[in-house]
């Protein structure tokens, strides 16, 4: 049974930091790229970051560039998202997801390219 469980969300003031983690089980974690998405109320799910199987390459959405860092630990089956300089507009539910293909394509930013999702963790940034 595939399971992705996010943790680390919470309430933080603008300018602060949070570190999200996602623990994976029941899937070949090291053989798949992983991603983080977020969804704010009334908005579509937005790509945040993607990391390849080995962690050698990472990609970020425009809102995350320069502030967020994705990383993974294949020995522990975890993927993390370090978020710095948080802004109120970063408020959303954050989801980790497993990339469906063996190799990262140019469509890594599309939600449909991911086949397993966690339940999400709420991040709220106050002004």
Molecular structure report:
With 127 residues, the chain is mainly beta. The chain is 0% helix and 49% strand. Strands 2, 4, 5, 6, 9, 10 and 11 form a 7-stranded mixed β-sheet that branches. Strands 1-3-8-7 form a 4-stranded antiparallel β-sheet, with no helix packed on it. Strand 7 (68-73) and strand 8 form a beta hairpin.
Q: How far apart lie the N and C ends?
A: 40 Å
In percent, how helical is the residue content? Answer: under 10%
Name the shape in a single word: globular
Q: What is the mean predicted local confidence, pLDDT? A: 96
Q: Measured on Cα atoms, how large is the radius of gyration?
A: 13 Å
Secondary structure elements and pairings:
Layout: E1 3-7, E2 10-13, E3 18-25, E4 34-39, E5 46-51, E6 58-60, E7 68-73, E8 78-83, E9 92-99, E10 114-117, E11 121-126
Parallel strand pairs: 2-11
Antiparallel strand pairs: 1-3, 3-8, 4-5, 4-9, 5-6, 7-8, 9-10, 9-11
Gist of the model:
This protein is an all-beta fold.
Q: What tags apply to this protein structure?
A:
single chain; 127 residues; mainly beta; seven-stranded mixed β-sheet; 0% helix
């Amino acid at each position: 049974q595939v399971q992705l469980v996010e943790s680390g969300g919470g309430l933080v003031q603008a300018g602060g930091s949070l570190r999200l983690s996602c623990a994976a089980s029941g899937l070949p974690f090291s053989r798949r790229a992983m991603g983080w998405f977020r969804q704010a109320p009334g908005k579509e799910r937005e790509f945040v970051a993607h990391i390849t199987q080995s962690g050698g390459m990472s990609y970020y959405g425009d809102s995350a560039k320069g502030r967020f860092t994705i990383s993974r630990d294949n020995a522990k089956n975890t993927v993390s998202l370090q978020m710095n300089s948080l802004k109120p507009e970063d408020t959303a539910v954050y989801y980790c997801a497993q990339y469906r293909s063996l190799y990262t394509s140019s469509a890594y930013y599309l939600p449909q390219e991911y086949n397993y999702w966690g339940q999400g963790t709420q991040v709220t940034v106050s002004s």
